[in-house]
Write a structure and sequence with these properties.
Elements: E1 4-5, E2 11-12, H1 26-40, E3 45-48, H2 67-95, E4 98-105, H3 116-135, E5 141-148, E6 151-152, E7 162-163, H4 165-169
Parallel strand pairs: 3-4, 4-5, 6-7
Antiparallel strand pairs: 1-2
Helix pairs in contact: 1-2, 2-3
GO molecular function, one term: oxidoreductase activity
InterPro entries: NAD(P)-bd_dom_sf (IPR036291), SDR_fam (IPR002347)
Keywords: Oxidoreductase
Amino acid sequence: MPGVRRPSGERRSPAAAAFPADVLDHGALTQALQDAATRFGGIDVLEYSPGGSLESTPLTAPSGTGPSDVRWAMDVLLHGALAATRAVLSAMREAGAGTLLYTNGAGSVDPDPVLGNLNAAQAALRNWVLGLHKELAGTGVQAAHVAIGAWIGTGGPPGVPAAPAEEIASLY
């Protein structure tokens, strides 16, 4: 039975709560994670996987990608992950336990030319996570990256495989 074991041995499911923040606003993101940690007595798992719609996600082919195209993707995918991690990692290290899970598209390992700017940022995130995982060896804190080779939901770019969220959920 999922939930939290109380000192009495009783199991209770924690109440759900929302702590919304824009990943581009690192101060607000940090505050939201601090608020969640206060509310729940800490954060055991950070799952970072920002997403957007085609209307909100600029896409460029590799040859058409300029610095500003990659900057936007880096801000969302890498810089937001760095801010979120900084907000929770010291407490995880102090506790000697925790999981940092970062999810994005498979462009980090198998680039799709339709997603040139996203591929670069996804690869940067994956590389950073792999280094973080090695750094954290022996601390009780794990870092992992999951590359999903499908657009989650409907309305993805033409030619990119899609999968309903229910299929992706089983990966976790």
